[in-house]
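Protocol step 4 of 6: structure prediction from sequence.
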Amino acid sequence: MPHRPPARTRPHTALFAPLALLATLGASLCLPAAAEPVRMRSVDLDSVQIAYREKGKGQPVLFVHPLLTDSRMWLDQLNALCETRRCLAPDASGHGFSSPLTYSKVDSNRYADELLQFLDAVSVKQPVDIVALSGGGNIAALACAKAPGRCRSLVLISTVLGSDNLDAAGVRYRAENARTVVIEGKDTLFRRFNEYIVASGASLTARARYKTMLEQTSYETFVAFLTTAQAPATGDIAPQLRFPVMFPVGQGDTVLTPALAAKAVARFPDARLVELPAVGRLLPLEAPAELNDALSRFWKDVDTTTTGGKR
């Protein structure tokens, strides 16, 4: 007589049927973009591999981080704005998880070309909305000037556009910081930057993420940045950028103060100023909800302008 396995080892179809049905239903459901994780990806350009974070679908938005940080600067924006936007935040070469720096000085024009190559590599064909902070804003402005048809709108946070090189005192100060970071470590430099980068009321979480990004930036990148005396030539770019531009400015920003931001706005054909109270330079970290709201309202206006009121 054939051997039959004990009843307890047989598949219990009555039990597994509901589970199979749930699995099928789960696979067919489309989760909201906000419920999905931020994806880490990488893409090869001409001479470097670029790591980037991506989330959401829709009108593409390119987030450009300041030098000495990385795309984690924009995590709150990627998670909050992904329902209607394809949010892309690359790590510039020499930063984050992208290829290390292979040249001894920072070249903003090279980084601008890198941004345009990145857009090609991730198959972004239509004009993008760009959001950039500090030196990332100079890079973004250069990219827009090189290829104005690639940019639909531009948001510049604590970005000083100019073409003047550093004076002798500025060169010495930066060279001192370069030596300090190599000999004494990044924590010493963080303590200096922390005095003016964020407002006094900035949260510990905001300071912690900023410190994490600084600590994970290579020493070679610090030296290249701090020993570059030539500022990017962006002083004459403003009149060329004939698409909507917004300057969100923290009232506690000690570099691009609200008064200086108002003067910068006047140089653009189509620009606006938005003031955020009690925050410093790092708006994406210090006031993410307020910045996200300002971005959403700005893009809503841009959508209406560029589509003639049709979504």
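Step 5 (inspection) to follow. Strands lie at 39-44, 49-55, 59-64, 85-90, 128-133, 151-157, 245-250, 271-276.
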